Amino acid sequence: MSIGNAYPDQSERLRAVDPKRDVLSSDDQQHWLTIADQLAARLAESAVERDRLGGHASFERELIRDSGLLTLAVPTEYGGQGQPWSLVYQVVRRLARVDSALAHVFAFHHLQVGSVLLYGNQHQQQRLLAATAQEHLFWGNTLNPLDKRTVATERDGGGFILQGKKGFCSGAKGSDYLTVSAWHEPTQSLVIAALPTHRPGITVHDDWDAIGQRQTDSGTVSFEQVEVLEREVLLPPGFAWSPPAQFRACLAQLVLVNLYVGIAEGAFEEAKRFTLEHGRPWLASDAAQAQDDPYLQRHFGELWVKLRSAQVLADIAGDIAQRHFVKRTAISAENRGEAAIAIAEAKVVAHQAALDASSRLFDIAGARATARPLGLDRFWRNARTHTLHDPMDYKIRDLGRWALLDQYPVPTSYS
User: Fold this and answer.
1) Whether 346 contacts 320, CB under 8 Å
2) How far is CA 212 from CA 38, 111, 149, 336, 414, in A?
3) Which of 77, 123, 271, 348 has a CA positioned 20 to 30 A from the CA of residue 203?
4) Region class of 164: left (phi > 0), else alpha (psi between -120 and 50), else beta
5) Overall pTM surpassing 0.85 (yes/no)
């Protein structure tokens, strides 16, 4: 079955996630969490089948667009909802419970909005974010600093010409705008720009084929003599990276934290549902029902502690990140360091919770839970794929340096 034809009545699609702006004000956070839950319910209807098929979830991405949630992080002065990052991450988590791939795409859209706010000048923010709010634009990412295959050379009349390829470009396919990084050889530094995805010379390749996160559209983007106008450059080459510019890594790392927490929550709920609805006590057990088995109760108790720890630390980190993000150009090195430590703490625990919950789900549910139609393996595959984003050993090292020497993490694209 084609996923694009899963809901043939397009009027049903438009009714599926109704923001109800005439009922509740846009600054009511509970309202937006309700919208997120409605959207998650729609995504859950096809999540298992879409995970099996992989590829681009065009229909479901339109559900996200129609929900109004793409404007959450856009400031009110540009026509957006002006909601805090702590709320954006709560939405990411709720979507990730059922579909961590599309939660990833949604989160990376907001990461690019944050990038414009941290990198762009006032005119760029007005132009790009007002259009994002008015037209419900979907942003994708080709800002991968480790991949230097795309090179920027000076363009006659100002700006640059881009040539090369980028990998791991999450959300690029189906997007309207991209943040782009390119390597500038003369200054040995990056150029960062915001470009329309359909700019001549940009090709988004449908070549993402991982074991998990199968619909994040994280494949390759190639640039063939792509023109970048001077006004489209968010950060020029040779720019001295300041704490506000370096704060983007904090926003990005918190995306991962909340994806992991959402996956852990989803796996935990599936284990609980399976136990209560289909569980059978083992033949050597004295329990009359699976939920009364002390060994299963131990599994749930241990997972609950890990999950609650991850949730609490993620919430604390989200609040700290929001408190400092609103300072924008006044973000200090200490502000960034405080956020980076809180995020590292949350990430280590969330990483462990996601892998443990998604694996132990099968210890709890037993052999029948491996039936392919249930798709319960997607939680582990998604967690295992995404937790390889950057090595956990270095997060723990950073926390060790903080605990022992009071040293904040060295600012990088991953810390």
Assistant:
1) no
2) 24, 21, 25, 31, 21
3) 123
4) left
5) yes
> What does pLDDT average to over the chain?
93
Burial code of 88-100, b = ≥16 C-beta within 10 A, e = fewer? bbbbbbbbbbbbb
For residue 181, what is the enclosing H or E element? Answer: strand 177-184
One-letter amino acid at 231 equals: R
Residue 162 · residue 199 · CB < 8 Å: no
Q: Are strands 139-142 and 177-184 parallel, antiparallel or unpaired?
A: parallel
Query: What is the Cα–Cα distance from 407 to 333, expressed in whole angstroms?
Result: 12
Contact of 220 with 244, CB cutoff 8 Å: no
At 361, list the tokens: 């789900």
DSSP notation for 94-153: HHHTT-HHHHHHHHHHHHHHHHHHHHS-HHHHHHHHHHHHHHT--EEEE--TT---SEEE
72 burial type by CB count under 10 A (0-12 exposed, 13-18 middle, 19+ buried): buried
Identify the helix (H) or strand (E) that includes residue 193.
strand 189-196
Q: And the tokens for 326?
A: 């609103």
Cα gap 161→248, rounded to integer Å: 25
Burial letters 140-173, b for 16+ CB under 10 A, else e = bbbbbeebbebbbeeeeeebbbbbbbbbbbbbbb
User: In the Cβ-directed half-sphere of 270, how many Cα atoms lie within 13 Å?
Assistant: 28
Q: How does pLDDT run across 334-384, given as a tens digit for each residue?
A: 999 999 999 999 999 999 999 999 999 999 999 999 999 999 999 999 999
Task: Please say if the pLDDT value at position 135 is more than 80.
Answer: yes
Residue 320: name the closest of 299, 304, 334, 303 by CA: 334
| Residue 191, φ and ψ in degrees, nearest 5 | -110, 135
